[in-house]
What does this fold into?
Amino acid sequence: MEKLTIKIHVTDRQGEHHHLNVPTDMSMNLMEVIRSYELAEEGMIGICGGMAMCASCHCYITSKHQLKSPSSEEEFMLLDANDVKENSRLSCQIPISIELNNLELIISPFQ
Ligand code: FES
It folds into this structure.
């Protein structure tokens, strides 16, 4: 089977832009991608391990991609998060797939 890699564009908490090559066949979510590229300090993202229970992976999706709607757990967690906007999502709740090619996001301030 052909290996598919997509591009994801991330702005980190320092305002730096990163253009990532992300494999679609490793069952990763966006938070894990951000961690694997070390775009947020250790212990400052993914604190709950991707269970939608901490909001440390909160991000803003700035491209026009149609993402799967948030689960009730994600919505509930975002109710409690800081600096929530219309385009807020928990990056751990977004699985990597080919449809995310060229997705753009900003990592929210740490919370
Ligand atoms: S890692 Fe905790 S909510 Fe995403």
Summary: The chain has one domain: 5-101.
